[in-house]
Structures are given as structure tokens and as C-alpha cells.
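Re: that chain you flagged

S.,

Sorry for the slow reply, it's been a week of failed gels. I finally had a moment to sit down with the sequence you sent. For the record, here it is as I used it:
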Amino acid sequence: MKKLLFILAILISSLVADFKETPISEDFLDSGIKIIDIRTQGEWQESGIIEGAYTVTFFDEQGRVDEQSFIRSLESIVTKDEEFALVCRTGSRTKFAGEILSQKYGYKVINLKGGMEKLIKEGYESTSY
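Prediction finished late last night. Pasting the C-alpha cells below so you have them in one place:
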């Protein structure tokens, strides 16, 4: 019975999950939506960050996830009913993280496809970390 309830809970959460993707652009950055930069500290230092973005590492340098630590940090920045965006280098890590955050935790997440790499190629001048 517990297994059936667990499977049902996962199915329901996937139906109500709120996960979107949009190409990153300077216009999006002007929208006022909070942006969480999930890259590593080394990446922030190397290419800078989006002005006003919150820096909260999701993956460490070895590619490991400390999900609970990330959630604790995220809870101090956004609420579950507040839409926010995730950015990484190219959008791959944010897609993975965003799906977890929306399906498992019920957050309203936007993955910024193309990430910092695309934004900088388009001429965006990042802020030093």
C-alpha cells in the first residue's frame, strides 16, 4: 500500500510540476524574476555573474549534488509559489536541477537555455563575483 501511495504521489506531482524553459536573453533579465546561478564558485569567478543573481551552487566541482543544502539556501531566496529562473554555463545542469525542484519540491522553475555562455556571446557584460 505504501508503495502504491508513493507512486501515486509521484504521478500527481509530475502532473502539477511547474517547469518551463526559455532561451536566455537580456530582455528576460529585465523581467524582474529572481535568477539563481547554480554554477560553481570557480565558474562565477571565471566569467562573472548576472547582476542581481543569487549564487547557490547545486553541483560541486566533482559533479555531486547536495540537494538538502541547496534547498535550505533556496528557501531563504524564494517561496514555492514564486516563479524564479535558474542559470548555469549552458542550461544542461539547470534543466536537471529545475526538473527536480519542480517535480520533487513543487517549485515554479524556469530553465534559462543557453546559460551564461550564450548570454556573454550575445554581448552581455557580466558583473564580477
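What I noticed first: The first strand starts at residue 18 and ends at 23.

Talk soon,
D.
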